[in-house]
Amino acid sequence: MGELIPLFPLGTPLFPGMVLPLHVFEPRYRRLVLDLLAIPEESERRFFGVVAIRQGWEVERIAPAEALYDIGCVARLQMVRPQSDGGFRVVTVGGERFRLRDVLVGEDPPYLQGEVEWLADEEAAEEAAGDAEGLVVPGTRSAAAGPGDPATASPPCDEHLDEVVAAVARDSLALLAAGVQELFTDYVDEVTDLGAGSDGADAERAALLDAVADDPTALSWLVASTALLTTEDRQALLAESATRRRLAAETRLLRRELTLVRELGAVPAPLQRFATPMTVN
């Protein structure tokens, strides 16, 4: 059995470290906020899981487990402001990622609950695999090298090999992150010129980029959260556990989006914008 946590389905995924403000007005989610407020403020349990909706716009119309993506992110409660109508204004911050194994629907509590497994161990393993993937350590044989090639020289002493691999990984990851930051800056400029962004939002993005310049993982989550991508693209980035692979995917996505903006003057629009009430037909 996995751990049971409250769920809050949304139209787009939440990412680690990203701020998520919410206006809570539905009775069941008012109950969720009240349940969280009943937990001691110093507790680590003041959170709920955010999962993106896979299909449709109302989870209850189809089986919840089929309607939701299977990778989500914890939203940790930071601030709660009760409203005069009984609702709440809340501010949360993205925390740990999880895999949704099952969805429970009940009357008490009235909100959805998810049986989840945490992805911390998977993330650590994928980070190590991602760092080693495609790297050629100086003085060792490359996959493409043949007999007599300089790359077939004797490898470094064992005691130094880990240090060399780590240094190469750090340098290449920094270059990859710098490339993503440059692409994202160009992308934001193009979107602003198109009129799809706002001056205030662009200034905020610039400040955030400066803040995460030396943190490739935080940069990758910032780009995933703020680029005007489809839910499917964002969800794929959330599901990627290795920072290097996530940045590589963002490089491809940003190049694609820059081409669309420059050639077609277009950015993705959320499907919810085109939603209409369901009919008997």
UniProtKB/TrEMBL annotation:
Gene3D superfamilies on file: 1.20.58.1480, LON domain-like (2.30.130.40)
A Pfam family annotated for this UniProt entry: LON_substr_bdg
Alphabetized InterPro entries for the sequence: Lon_prtase_N, Lon_prtase_N_sf, PUA-like_sf
Domain annotation Lon N-terminal: ranges: 2-258
PROSITE patterns per record: LON_N
Protein name listed in UniProt: Lon N-terminal domain-containing protein
Classification of source organism: Bacteria, Bacillati, Actinomycetota, Actinomycetes, Geodermatophilales
